[in-house]
């Protein structure tokens, strides 16, 4: 976990209904879920295997160990999990070397959170090397804290990543708004006790108590997030 939380930023959360905003990365902030699937298909093609489209719903949003392990199991590829993880990360990092596209509304939302001094964290199942490369494009300054999948003991769908981020801000999880695009990420955030805005990228996500589902980040602003907390708090 990396954290650069200024004292002034932390103080703005005290006594406020909304204490922090925690964002997923792939498919939520940046339009890279398709990149990951393309990379997985390319790597397995090099290994002599063809990935089936229904498998995409299984691996989307999951930690590298789970997704890669699943694909090894269903294809029978002769490769270790560690070897495959390196290949996937290397290929993905090469794919994004010229930058990554933001999801619609992401840039505007990040600017609004920064202008209002809302403590904001990036919480991803991707490894640190990938997060840092993505933030070279998006801007490290948008996030006072980042949590990578290879820096926690148990990653999504376990609540540890979101509990870690909330603790890093000294925030109550139920006063944190989480924005996620997959069922795996939503499960992690809700298990941590956070309020969730789901913006489905690949597979649909149903509304539920303490959760709202929107079609795009263009529907989400600071007022929307504050209302989510007060309405469910």
From TrEMBL:
Q: Where is the signal peptide?
A: none
- What Gene3D superfamilies does this protein map onto? HAD superfamily/HAD-like, Putative phosphatase, domain 2
**InterPro entries (alphabetical):** HAD-like_sf, HAD-SF_hydro_IA, HAD_sf, PGP-like_dom2
Q: Name one Pfam family in it.
A: Hydrolase
Q: Show the PANTHER family listed in the entry.
A: 2-DEOXYGLUCOSE-6-PHOSPHATE PHOSPHATASE 2, PSEUDOURIDINE-5'-PHOSPHATASE
The name this protein goes by in its record: HAD family phosphatase
Where is the organism placed in the taxonomic lineage, from the top?
Answer: Bacteria, Bacillati, Actinomycetota, Actinomycetes, Kitasatosporales
